[in-house]
Amino acid sequence: MNPAADIPASVRSELLDLLDEVRSLPDERPDDAHSRITVVEAIETGLEGNASIGALIADPDGRVVLSERNRMFFPRFRSDLHAEMTLLTRYENEHAPKADLRGHTLVTSLEPCEMCTIRIINSGVTSCLYVASDLGKGGITGPNRLAPHWARLAEHQNFAAADCSDRLAEISLAAFEATIGGVIRKLMARRLLEGS
Ligand SMILES: [Zn+2]
Prior knowledge:
Layout: H1 9-24, H2 32-47, E1 54-58, E2 64-69, H3 83-94, E3 105-110, H4 114-123, E4 127-132, H5 148-154, E5 158-161, H6 166-195
Parallel strand pairs: 3-4, 4-5
Antiparallel strand pairs: 1-2, 1-3
């Protein structure tokens, strides 16, 4: 944990409540078990001062081989370390030189952004499921269209909402929305400091 996480007490309290609830929910839908792991990762990294997003890779038999989380601000600032990026970088390093993700599924607690969508396409993972949609803003349901070469590669992959309980998706989105404002403020503060 990050002892110096600079998050408001109200946000910490909300995240802890969500963590209790997500751990107590019964598994009802086929993707609930995987979804829950990503949402727990998401809430825990929110408590560390990062944006609340978690992700995992499951093998063709559904076994979780790796789970990770957003690490943009903790343990140090790294602008590329969204949850999916952290996950894929670690997987590719640990499984070099092949890192073959055919038949595997990447589950993320929130619909991936444009950067992560392209990284997921490049990784060659067969399926990408997201627990909560980032409607109108994410890399899948948002307004931006993929360039033709990315779109061609993505034809061989499945991007879809996870088949999970509605409450899990609500908790995932609530955790993200509780933390994203603070992250944007920290990014803005870095700019103001660097410009002065
Ligand atoms: Zn991203």
